[in-house]
Amino acid sequence: MTLHTILTPEWIHEAKLIAAENPRLEGFVPSEGGLHPRILLLGEAPGDKEVKIGRPFMGPSGKELDRWLASLGLTREDIYITGVVNSRPFSIGKTGRKSDRRPNQKEVKRSAAMFDWELSHFPDVLLVPMGNASLQRLLGTKAKIGDLHGQLLERSIQKYNQQTDSFELSKEKHQIFPLYHPSYSKRFKNMKPVVDADSQKLKQLLEQQSNRH
């Protein structure tokens, strides 16, 4: 299996700088996948395992992702994976142990230029945000995965304007298919039928696209 990153040395240098300047971020995990993906899989941020290995979706979450892809008839070469933030956001508990946390708005904005550049590289590829962090990065804070999961949307997406330090909606529309994270049904067993039904809808959508080409 041959996986690539589209990130240039300049972007990689910038991403490493972002982590180095923030004491609550660690490591750097470049985006990766096939160069002609069927879907663009958008996560939140890497966790401990991903940062140690330097690749997205490793360990238990990686096995879960690979099983899920197989159920869709896909491999990692058929997708491209990136995240809202490419370093691990963490907090430190009373025992001194690090634990994953959701990236804050300042961190999301700091990584926004690279995220926007990556999405612009695949203008016609289906966007699949997994969970609220990546969904809200695309559509704004009012968008909720509980309302929009398993639906094919055609919407403008947020792009970061450095001059105004704010997000603005793109002129062009993108196809978006929001999903719960594959591990969600592991943690919340009662959600498994919902998660499975959404995956089935995505599979049908991909089959329809294949038939059109």
UniProtKB/TrEMBL annotation:
A GO term for molecular function: deaminated base DNA N-glycosylase activity
Matches recorded under Gene3D superfamilies: Uracil-DNA glycosylase-like domain (3.40.470.10)
Occurrences of domain Uracil-DNA glycosylase-like (ranges): 30-200
Key words, A-Z: 4Fe-4S, DNA damage, DNA repair, Hydrolase, Iron, Iron-sulfur, Metal-binding
InterPro entries in UniProt: UDG_Type-4/5, Uracil-DNA_glycosylase-like, Uracil-DNA_glycosylase-like_sf
GO biological process, one term: DNA repair
CDD domains per UniProt: UDG-F4_TTUDGA_SPO1dp_like (cd10030)
PANTHER family linked: TYPE-4 URACIL-DNA GLYCOSYLASE, TYPE-5 URACIL-DNA GLYCOSYLASE
Protein name: Uracil-DNA glycosylase-like domain-containing protein
Organism encoding this protein: Lentilactobacillus buchneri DSM 20057
